[in-house]
Amino acid sequence: MASIRASGARVPKVVLLVESSRASGRKLLQGIADYAHHRGPWSFYWEPGGLEKAWPVLKTLDADGIILRDADKLDEVLAFGIPAVVVGHRNEEISGLVNVVTDSAAIGRMAAEHLLRCGFRHFAFCGYESTPLEHTPWSRLRRESFSKRVVKAGFEAPADHVLLPTRTDWQEERRLLARWLESLPKPVGLMACNDDCGQQVMEACKLVGLPVPDAVGVIGADNDELVCGLSDPAMSSVRVNFERAGYEAGQALERLMCNSRQVPSKITVFATHVVARRSTDVLAVEDHHLAKALRFIRDHARKPLAVDEVALATTLSRRALERRFRKEIGSSILHEIRRARTDQIVRLLVETDLPVGEIACSLGFEDVQHFARYFRAAKKLSPVAYRKSYGPRPAARP
User: Both 319 and 381 in a single domain?
Assistant: First the structure.
């Protein structure tokens, strides 16, 4: 594993004990690799099976730093005195260490807001139960935030169902899940704690003939593009910026290895936006005029849109349509237009490397200044500042 720079300086040896079976782990690793490519080189020992498989050889690696998922033998690893960054999954934050923590509260809130905009009036949550082998506090936190936002909007608290994170008898578990789904009032907007759970929900819907999204609108979390794409129909999901968190974890580890005092105690994995796919491509509102207007806004959000244009897409007057917007969804037509337009901007800022001026032009803004004012009014940040805060990596430092 050891290697030497051409100049004779020792290349840092970094141990990565991060599983890669889910997109979250793979993206975290990609962010770490990205940082190493920019600031390295580093020499890696990677064990996708985690600490359990790496333990027999860990003492022999003579590592300079380690990034690992919290595990049962974490205290024994830390006793080695190796600079460490801990990716939180099961336990509480560990005092005195750099903790990578997912913003589960924002994930649950964003999923709820997406389903509310789809017009659902009934809601449900499916999560994972904690077991002695697999603690899932993140699932509970996402459920609590999801429920809080739904109740705040004036609806009943979501029904909930829990699955075991490791499948012991999947056939029986799917039957129980299917019966629970059948019992829910329809149409229902359902959040799954992550994309794997969402796929299980959608398979259970097929078992009892519940159409997605017409009877059950499903949104997952973490935006695992493989899982979301394999789902039928393709599943909507909250995108979580694991790549940036990996980049910042690599940066923090380098500072620890250099004995820097500028080391954060926590790295937050932020949710950026909802990636809407067919599993929530529905407008579950009884008022067909309102549904038509919302669909028109959704379909034309990539160009400048006036309130009068939305009204013309229906057979109602502007005043009558405005009243229905405020009564049924609690906001104005203009607010919905700006929200849909801002969602388009966010997606392009965090998912692409397109220059800000090119994004402004593609969305029909007259100039970059107008574009920046429009975005700042919604997000309280300029487009450049937003990209620096939520893009794939922090701004370059000298």
Answer: yes
Residues of the chain with pLDDT under 50: 1-7, 396-398
What tens digit of pLDDT does each residue of 5-42 get?
444 567 889 989 888 888 888 999 999 999 998 887 89
Is 398 among the domain residues? no
| 305 within some domain | yes
Preceding amide of 56 cis, omega within 30: no
5 falls within a domain? no
Q: Kind and range of the H or E element at 181?
A: helix 170-183
Domain harbouring 361, CATH code = 1.10.10.60
Contact 127, 162 (CB under 8 A): yes
What is the DSSP-derived secondary structure letter of residue 96? Answer: T
Tokens of 31: 């962010």
In the predicted model, what is the mean pLDDT of the chain?
Answer: 88
DSSP assignment of 118-170, as one string? Answer: TT-S-EEEEEE---SS---HHHHHHHHHHHHHHHHTT-PPPEEEEE-SS-SSH
**213 vs 219: CA distance, rounded Å:** 10
Question: What CATH number corresponds to the domain at position 194?
Answer: 3.40.50.2300
- Stated as kind and residue range, the H or E segment containing 192 is strand 188-192
Give SS3 for 16. strand
Distances (CA, A) of 159 to 12, 69, 149, 213, 256: 50, 31, 14, 18, 45
C-alpha 62/C-alpha 42 separation (Å) is 14
Q: Which residues pair with 127 in a beta bridge?
A: 162
What are the φ/ψ torsions at residue 293 (nearest 5 degrees)? -65, -45
Domain count, the chain: 3
Range of the domain at 37: 13-102+242-270
DSSP secondary structure letter of residue 279? G
How many other CB atoms are found less than 10 A from the CB of residue 132? 5
pLDDT of residue 397: 44
CA nearest neighbour of 394 among 382, 385, 139: 385
| Residue 88 one-letter amino acid | G
Q: Which two tokens stand for residue 208?
A: 């009892």
